[in-house]
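ok, trying the design again with the full structure, not the truncated one.
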């Protein structure tokens, strides 16, 4: 297949592209116009000019793509959530997706399969409740962003595409994502649980995430919301214990909720103290075989790659 990929330079986009290229697919990266080199031939890397702010797309370069993997969006944890940052989080997801899909809908042959990024933040904080793709959304800022983001992604169905919104959990990787930031206090000997430690964490390794993306691309039964998480979420206290044991470090210094809120504001509640016990019901029902379902083994695998 010829596959368009946005967000191609991020740690997830990079890993997805490497895996898809190993499968023999042709990748066309959606990139800013000043870095685009146009549509290449003969197996060379392809780039397609896309300006998510101006809403422009190189239609000729985007034609004849079989699929789109849409991963673009400013980092949720890239800065304190002031008004300006919140606006960037929204526009880089919602507005950019609206512009992109509007342009794709005008192509003579738009992609027939679309995988769009979303997040388990869709559900908000749910305490001990177990949630699946059928569960209702939450009511906070991140949930609202995810709802609107998925609504724009669903517009792909208007031009006949099979559309899936991938609700990513906490992706564990040696380089990139949340894990490297988690490691620092433990490596310094001052790690510990966050807040009460009772909040549920729905995690997945980067390798498993890539396999799930490949599965969703190839499986015609996958559409709509898809939870991209391991089948065994854990409480923060358990995650902390396992991480400390894997690193051979103590976990004696909890970070109080009030201190996290003081340091990070609203972002602390959404990303660190929120409780989301999410199950990958749709992937399991479609026959996906989980390769890294156990947290201790998964963390061991990931940290060996550092």
């Amino acid at each position: 297949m010829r596959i368009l990929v946005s967000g191609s330079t991020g740690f997830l986009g990079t890993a997805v592209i490497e895996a898809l290229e190993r499968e023999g697919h042709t990748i066309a990266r959606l990139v800013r116009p000043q870095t685009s080199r146009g549509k290449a031939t003969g197996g060379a890397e392809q780039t397609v000019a896309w300006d998510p702010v101006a809403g422009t797309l190189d239609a000729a370069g985007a034609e004849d793509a079989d699929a789109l993997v849409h991963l673009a969006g400013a980092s949720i944890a890239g800065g304190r959530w002031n008004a300006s940052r919140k606006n960037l989080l929204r526009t880089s997801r919602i507005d950019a997706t609206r512009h992109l899909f509007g342009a794709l809908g005008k192509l003579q042959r738009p992609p027939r399969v679309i995988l769009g990024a979303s997040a388990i933040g869709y559900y908000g904080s749910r305490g001990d409740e177990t949630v699946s793709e059928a569960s209702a959304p939450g009511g906070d800022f991140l949930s609202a962003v995810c709802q609107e983001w998925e609504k724009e992604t669903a517009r792909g169905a208007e031009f006949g595409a099979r559309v899936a919104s991938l609700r990513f959990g906490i992706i564990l990787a040696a380089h990139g994502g949340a894990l490297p930031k988690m490691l620092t206090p433990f490596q310094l000997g001052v790690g510990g649980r966050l807040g009460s430690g009772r909040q549920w964490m729905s995690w997945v390794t980067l390798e498993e995430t890539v396999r799930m993306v490949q599965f969703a691309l190839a499986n015609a039964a996958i559409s709509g919301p898809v939870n991209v998480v391991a089948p065994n979420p854990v409480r923060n206290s358990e995650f902390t214990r396992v991480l400390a044991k894997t690193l051979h470090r103590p976990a004696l210094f909890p970070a109080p909720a009030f201190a996290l809120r003081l340091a990070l504001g609203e972002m602390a509640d959404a990303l660190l103290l929120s409780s989301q016990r999410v199950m990958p019901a749709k992937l399991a029902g479609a026959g996906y075989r989980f390769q890294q379902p156990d947290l201790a083994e998964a963390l061991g695998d990931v940290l060996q790659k550092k």
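Keeping the full-length input from now on. Confidence is low (pLDDT under 50) at residues 39-43.
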